[in-house]
Amino acid sequence: MKTLVTLVTLYITAAPAATLFLGAYPNSIMVFDEAKGQIIDRIPLSTGLPTSMRLSIDRKQIYVTTNDHSGIEVVDVATRKVINHFVLNTPTKRYRFNGGVTDPQGHVFYTVTTEMTKLDDRYEIGKLKYTVIDLAQQKIVKAVEIAHEDENANAGFYGRAGFEVSPDGKYLYQFRDKVVILNTDDFKVVDRIDLSKPDFPGMENVGFGGLLDSISEPGQHISLFNSADPIVHNRVFGIARFDLSTRRVNFTPIGPAPAGMAGLQVAPDKKHAYTVIANGAVANKRCEFWAFDLGTNRITQTAEVPCRSRFSFGMAGDGKKLYFYGAGFEIDVYDAATLKHERTWDLNNDVTGAGMIVVN
Amino acid sequence: MKHLRPLNQKGSRIAGQLRPPEEDVVALQNPPQPAPRPHIPMGCSLSFSPGWEVDMAGGTAGLCQPVERDIYDCYVTCFWPAQVPDHLNNSPDWATKCAAATKDWRNLDLVFP
User: Is the dihedral of CA A216, A221, A226, A227 positive or negative?
Assistant: First the structure.
């Protein structure tokens, strides 16, 4: 009886293992069970190779962009089936886009596109545009040219810079070299905040909004940002908390900014968070885990970690494991408490830059 | 330039160009500047940053290990079309039989331009 009670208690208190969704070559999403440590399903994508994934606010759907014909596929998390898919390319038009976010209702998809029109003798390359894609009509319903001063920041990887949308759907946040807040109606800039997302050489900066951050709550964005004063340009990193509804930001500086810094992975308890930093380049590049206490905004633990030339950084559903993956077929698993390497999962399939979605 | 005074109009124009437009406080620290990169002569590839042969510093330490890990990013992002078929325009099926490039690279399709 005592054993039975113990088992029941363990079952109740143990956090259920999460399911990982990973973009896979050449054209599928792998479904990986954390508890079993193996692939349990594979979702084929008829529109091609996944380049980015984004979990909906209610965590019931995953929006996937694909490369072959500029496609979008919507995956139902519960059934692991594709419930909507379409492509934007036509015989005379091609689009490049990568990453974006849906409105809170999941009706439209905001992104940045480049349109290429096939003419008799050449392709005409259009300007970068903020674009609204209607998921029901399966087509672009609005495209607004990006202001000249914002073109460069949106050009790399066709607008991979992370997007977030406010809970009321009125504002679109773009986190890049600045935080730019846009009106979703006309894409006019409402505000610019001088906080920049840290770069990380070799980091596969997955788009679709999160930029590898684990978004803890709808309506909030918590991440690491760099700030520089205008006089001596001293770069300082810190934790910024955005209230997406009120456009209020609270930035707490922590210390001198390292050369590179990954996104912030916030544990489900919202007290602990982790990142990977890098100093030096190529042969001299050294990486470290940094663990944060979000209550006091202090670094609580650091540990050197061998970093790959190119990788992505993620976290388990219960926040107890940290993942290195990408540019290959393996996931390196680290214990979040000790920051020590635990094991390596062999996926036997290369992971695309679409990154990882964790669903509990 | 405090000890040199222009004697003619041309000299005045040069001094005007060198003179800062207005007195300003000089910052003690400049914004971070990228480290100077080595000059790598153009060879068979149009771009070497990063590539399979050399990394941005001209060495191999910054490359993916093993190099097959990097094949697909070059392929998909159209970054390195000289050595790798490009996914977007010409060879969308190049890697359909090869899920893990490091293990299955022999299954990559042959492309004849």
Answer: negative
Radius of gyration of chain B (CA): 25
Q: Write the CB contacts of A279 (distance below 8 Å, at least 6 apart in sequence).
A: A258, A259, A260, A285, A286
The predicted-structure confidence for A134-173, as pLDDT tens digits, reads as follows 999 999 999 999 988 888 888 765 455 678 899 999 999 9
Of the partner residues A233, A327, A348, the one whose CB lies closest to the CB of residue B30:
A233
Find residues 191-230 of chain A whose CB sits inside 8 Å of chain B: 202, 228
A47-79 confidence digits (pLDDT tens): 999 988 998 888 899 999 998 999 999 999 999
Q: Which residues in chain A touch residue B69, judged by CB atoms under 8 angstroms apart? A: 308-310, 327-328, 350
Residue-wise burial string across A51-60, b where 16 or more C-beta atoms lie within 10 A, e elsewhere: bbbbbbbeee
What amino acid occupies position A316?
A
Q: Does A155 touch chain B (CB under 8 A)?
A: no
Q: How many CB atoms lie within 10 A of CB A186?
A: 9
Q: What per-residue confidence (pLDDT) applies to A329?
A: 93
Q: Are strands A71-76 and A61-66 parallel, antiparallel or unpaired?
A: antiparallel
B12 CB near a chain A CB, below 8 Å? no
Q: What is the 3-state secondary structure (H, E, C) of B49-75?
A: CCCCCCCCCCCCCCCCCCHHHHHHHHH
Instruction: Give the rounded distance of the alpha carbon of A36 from its chain centre.
Output: 25
pLDDT of res. A60: 93
- Which residue's entry shows tokens 């392709």? A123
List Cα–Cα distances, A225 to A86, A175, A235, A249, in angstroms. 36, 9, 10, 12
Residues of B noted as catalytic: 70
Residue A280, C-beta contacts closer than 8 angstroms, at least 6 positions apart: A259, A286
* Position A185, amino acid: D
Query: DSSP class of residue A199?
Result: P
pTM of the model: 0.84
Q: Mean of the pLDDT values across residues A22-41? A: 95
Segment A299-315 mean pLDDT: 90
